[in-house]
Amino acid sequence: MLDYCSISHKSGILLWSRSFAPTSHAAGSVTSPVSSLVREALVEGRTADNSFEKNGLAFKWTFVNDLELIFVVAWQRILQLTYVEDLLNALKTVFLKLFEPFLTAFVASLHAASSVSGQASSTWNFATAFENWDSVFDKILRGFEEKATQDRRSRAKPAIRPAAEPSPPSDDSSTIPSQSNAVAVDEQQIARNVEALRNRLRGRGGRTGRRGPARGDTSSGRDSGPPSDSDTPAKRKSKAKAQRKWGDEAPSESEMASLDFSYETVEAHNKGAPDLAALVDEGSLGTRTQDGLYEVKDWEFTSGTDDVIAQMLKNDTRSTPASSSGSLGALGSLFARLTGSKVLTESDLKPVLEGMKQHLMKKNVAKEIAEKVCEGVGESLIGKKVGGFQTTNAAVRSALSNSLTRILTPKTSTDLLLSIRTKMSSPLPSTQQRLPYSITFVGVNGVGKSTNLSKVCFWLIQNNLRVLIAACDTFRSGAVEQLRVHVRNLSMLGVNGATNSKGRVELYERGYGKDAAGIAKEAIAYARDNDFDVVLIDTAGRMQDNEPLMRALAKLVAVNNPDKIIFVGEALVGNEAVDQLTKFDRALRDFSASSGGKERGIDGMLVTKWDTVDDKVGAALSMTYVTGQPIIFVGCGQTYTDLRQLRVANVVQAILSD
Amino acid sequence: MGSKLDAEIMSPVSAFTPQMLVVASLAAAIIIMIALVLLTRRNSAARGDVILLVGLPDAGKTAIMTTLTYKQTLPTHTSMQANSVVVPLGDKSCRVIDIPGHPRIRDQFREYIPSARGIVFVVDSSTVSRNGPAAAEHLHQVMHAITSLPPSKATPSLLILAHKCDLLKSTAQATPAQLAINRARTILERELEKRRASQTSGVGIEGLGAEGSEIDLGGLECTGTGEFRFADWEGGEVAFAGTSVAVGQAASVSDYADDKAVESDGLSSLCQWLEDQL
């Protein structure tokens, strides 16, 4: 069922791992499943939803923060494994109990503060240290898998669960009679109704066609009587008599009466029988679930005759409430803090994290993102020890600062100039002409795509590059004219002492109403033939929900395969940022993949109107969190020089400032 | 206070005996010597005492660290946090800090640079041709950090370690280690030259916010006029070494000694360099 399971330290050292699939990846190799998990989820701070999928594998993990351990379980995504969470918890508890001294020493050796070699000389034997863990793990896993199959089997039974659930097994005798009574009453009523209907039909039949003889002599004789509604009970009686006559004579009457009753009760019992079975089954399940999570395992393990593990799990449940109640006293916690052994708990963190979340939202971070970031911070802090006089607040603050820095730090190079130069200087086969470096600007309406495109253009010209602007906004009136004015202005500005930069920048336009993808393609061909270095493609603004327009944008991307796709977004955006970016990214990926090309998403962001938000710079965080891509530029004014690079430290400071 | 003490000492003239003078001068000499020793200790501390392991993810930093520390190569995955271990080297020991290579968290190395004695930049020589630009970007940051240290600090020495050289096939002319070193050196020099050219000729974009902290990375200046060469780098000497470790083979106890021999062979050049640094 499972594919892979591992226990490792945050340093990257794998303490123990096991893969179950035959074609699984060797641990420690580049394709190690945990590596991709760490790279793409844990380091990026995307731990909030607590699940991760990659290459058809689903992952779940849990941290032990004081010993810095990670427990990871991976399985085929199509399988629905319900016990993974419990399994992780059980593994964590048992593993810590078994190897705590060794682990403490091991973690301490990874945090050597000075070069004084305390126990560095002692030999480490990782192979023998976890020798018996394999068998323990097998037992735990088997317990959970057995329980899962049991659950599935009991679910497959056609039992009426909700009805039986609240009644404990001892009440069987009281519930069943009442049920059978109800059933009996119902049957009587049904019988009466059927009778009435039949009578009415017969009456009609008697009136119209007289098809009596088909039903036998006796009945036809009775039917010939006057059909009136008032004597229905009499008729029923007579009908019953007729039935008796249909069988035997005198003895049949009493027998039928008794037989009727017995038949009913038997039926009730028959109906009750699956109920009973379900009740018994359900009862045992009920006690299991009622007594709590750990008791379930307890029961499992005692049935599996593994007392040691069960004992450990039991001890754990007992010790947790005790420790939490012990740390309640204010004086006690003060002393604990003084001695440097205060352990952060969920209840400590909750109010602080809530405050932090509010603070982030005040700084214009999207609500969803603020929640996720705070959740991630909380997860990394639970169980950590706070030393000295450091308050919970301060600990959360520093952790949040770290997390923000990590989210905002680009993971790919943001040096646009370098990548342009690299492309220009890369070796080419002699038959091929060098394609220019193309950058596409996309975004919703009115965020400043054309304006910031001209700023980027100015910067590129200053770096002695020849730039062609492709006017692919063929929709909004005045879009082409706007770019023409920019080109005129830019060509009059001097570069490096020259009075103007004629010939360094040109506009490629084909008017309005044409296909944008085609214009872009022609522009790139024109730039290639006329020796331009960079093509900046301006696209029409579009709302992220407008599917035809998004499809057209994806076509432009797929046809021209630009080197960079830059999403232009304004810093004023709040919760909308998440929606915009996810949908643009998704649409680009889906449509470009479906049209046969390679999947392309957004490569970077340009945040405009930065000067209007003061220190409410949360949009930057929302945007980088959603895409994981860097903010390449920030637009912060009206002139061509008002283009800046983002400094992570400044943004973090602005977000955290009060 | 001083004058009062002086007065007390001066007033009993009988105290000015020759023995007293000798004792006083001896005491003064001892004090000066202790002060000198302390000062030199402080000087060596200014150079720092830690060795940093930096490089791209999957280059093998943590594997090297475990091999040095625990004398066995443990299986590893991408690190999430920096590790600080004490490595015994002969009769001495040094502190080695392994910095994760993930781009989002590798900037941690800046905190440790002021206290660094040496920096080991680990390159995976089997993938360096593919990861060249990324490796050069990281190395550029490291070199920039080294050159921008204040002049009062001694610059840490830099070692470029062509790791995983066991994955290369040896030729008639060169051993795998030499091959790996050559490959790493040529590719890194080429990529760094690109970065240097782009830096010197380009007009950068200002950073947002406070002035002062420069956004463009320098630190690639060479004494020669031409292209970037590690030999001509102004930031100091750059050493090269080729190493390899065998993951997982040192797992069992029975062939522990055997594996130890193998490891010391694989990492011997690194150990040699580390010992030179002490």
UniProtKB/TrEMBL annotation, chain A:
It is a peripheral membrane protein. SUPFAM superfamilies: Domain of the SRP/SRP receptor G-proteins, P-loop containing nucleoside triphosphate hydrolases, SNARE-like. Residues 199-213, 235-244 have a biased composition (Basic residues). It comes from the Eukaryota. CDD domains: SR_alpha_SRX, SRalpha_C. Residues 630-643 form the SRP54-type proteins GTP-binding domain. PROSITE patterns: SRP54 (PS00300). This is Signal recognition particle binding protein. It comes from Wolfiporia cocos (strain MD-104) (Brown rot fungus). The lineage of its organism: Eukaryota, Fungi, Dikarya, Basidiomycota, Agaricomycotina.
Automatic annotation (TrEMBL), chain B:
The keyword Nucleotide-binding applies. It is a single-pass membrane protein. GO terms for molecular function: GTP binding; GTPase activity; metal ion binding. The keyword Nucleotide-binding applies. It is found in: Endoplasmic reticulum membrane. SMART domains: ARF (SM00177). GTP binds at G55, L56, P57, D58, A59, G60, K61, T62, G101. Gene3D superfamilies: P-loop containing nucleotide triphosphate hydrolases. PANTHER family: ADP RIBOSYLATION FACTOR-RELATED. Belongs to the SRP receptor beta subunit family. This is Signal recognition particle receptor subunit beta.
